Amino acid sequence: MDLTTEISTATDLHLVNAEDLESWTDMQPRRVRAWLETLGFSAKPGEVVLVPDTDGGLALAAIGRGTARDRVRQRFCAAGARAKLPARTYRLHHALAPLELEEEALGWCLAGYRFRRFRQSERPALASLIGPEALDTDRIKAIAAGEALTRDLINTPASHMGPQELEAAFLDLAAQHKAKTNVILGDDLLNQNLPLIHAVGRASTRSPRLLDMRWGEKGPRVTLVGKGVCFDTGGLNLKPGASMGLMKKDMGGAAAVMGLAHMIMAQGWQVQLRVLVPAVENAVSGNAMRPGDILISRKGLSVEVNNTDAEGRLVLADALALADEETPDILICMATLTGAARVALGPDVAPFFSTDPVLAQTLMQASEQVRDPIWQLPLHPAYEAMIEPGIADLDNAPSGGMAGAITAALFLNRFVEASPRFAHFDIYGHQPSAAPARPKGGAGQGARALFAALPSVLGL
Questions:
Q1: Domains in the chain, please, with CATH?
Q2: Residues classed as catalytic
Q3: Which terminus of the chain is more exposed, N or C, with fewer CB under 10 A?
């Protein structure tokens, strides 16, 4: 959040619900009421009205938040107005409940995000806001910075965000928070028993690697695992061109856990945090894995590769097995894993799967509170047979095309045995069209719900 100490120069900014418009208008001076009537201000979501003073300056500004129905259907109602306001500092006036205030303040911050790495034009000036005393501005800024990191990583094209560049961003994050890191590179993956990560990434000229970060020495053990497939061609089961266009976002799970890790570390949680990112490029060359190959995982389970385009679950399997060996109190996996998840819930709602009912319930409650939409899907035991091909222990791509998100989650769950609380998120990581506080492009999903839910689950 943009903060300033020059409070005396700030312009009053009012957030107005449509149902409160009449009472709010009645409290304004007569000339303000006349101006509002002239302009027909109706407090629609994101509607802005600028009220001049007697000298032609700006007396106050107001942003509409719409009706209660509008606010259910649309997140961050006021956020879209930031770009419409003159670039000056504002003092917020509101009658919002704490969670509503946090949502709008976060929306204000997120609305300032611009991905400008490849743009030569100057960044446009934006309005600044003085955070109300009732608001934990440090927390809001940590969340916004985590989301900005996630968006930046996803938005960066694969030419500039391969495994090596993702490693550099990972190390930068660790250095920022004085975390310890370890990187296992190339053939060392085989030497350290991470064969699936190696198999997926070995065909690329950009070496596969496992990124490992540790932070904190006391408290519950929290491990985050994120899929870092920096570009997914589909391998020998080559994707059609139309399906390859967004594959720079196939490291969205890695971006999401890195953003969440920043939130946790910036807020100084008393936890033992570990972040694991298998960073690879699924490419084609003479040594690419083939359909029909059988791979032996870190856990010893054999996997028949029936589709080289189902590579995300392979790299995650080794990383999850490694994480599970330490029996963390909570193990979270995030990945842009299946198209089936998007068919089921669309791009805006991220399905998740969990072995722990308390964690799942707390996540659902937190999701509603912080307006980060997620939805639990079942680890349906009857579908276990679908991932057992007969020739090997597991099938990475069951035939039939049914229940694809569930069978992928069941596959990953086979590599988690010791961890008492496990959750897997099948995110999209992309905003298809611009919305308030969410420009088209890379997007975090599930991280804010996790950030809100984990303190309760962990007893922090």
A1: 7-112 (3.40.220.10), 141-458 (3.40.630.10)
A2: 239, 313
A3: C
